[in-house]
Amino acid sequence: MAARRDLRSDAGQAFPIYITAVAGLLFLALALFAVGQAGATRNGGQTAADAAALAAAQDYRDQLRKAFLEAIANGGAWDDLLNGRGLGSTSACDEARWFAGRNGSDVTGCHGPEFLPTSFTVTVRTRKPVGKTVIPGTERKYGEATAKAVVTPRCTAEPPAPPTGRPDDGGKGDGGGKDDGKGGDGGKDDGKDDKPPIDLRCDGVDLTIDPTRLDLFPDAKDLFSVHLAG
Predict the structure, then answer these.
(1) Residue 153 CB contacts under 8 Å (≥ 6 apart), including other chains
(2) pLDDT tens by residue, 74-86
């Protein structure tokens, strides 16, 4: 009878320890779940920041291409544009806000274009918090993240080819065209024929832009690359 009483006594003492161990494991599991939930919120914010920064940089790249084309068409300066600079005000951060919203976040900071290298830095905050967990305060904890996207020129300008005509010939033939009225129809009046081709070197490949055939103007992605920094 004494032995039986001892067994019952041992079982009674072990039961509270068992309950405590189970409760501890359950709390640990819930804490790990809270950490995972916070990590998921943080990852969602980082995805939104990456998308927003890339959107801003790509929009800026498209504007560079448009300004570059217009400068060539109008005979303006385009060197800075080819190097990723020279634009005035830009709507690139508006694109960043739109893409952040599509990913459930709000832009809290958008800086750019920053130069050397040309880039945009975007900071976002998730619209939804982590939520209630066993860790106090997570219901008011939002995911925040920052991303930087860089616009890199693919092309460099080649020096213009030296003139091949003889100075003595200087324009005698052209002068004859003016006398019979044909020279005016040749294209000088529209300002196109006197614009020499522009030779570029893009990622090791030669590219020539003909100012008289701007319908063949290269795409923005052929002139500039966009990538996340770091």
Answers:
(1) 82, 83, 84, 223, 224
(2) 989 999 999 999 8
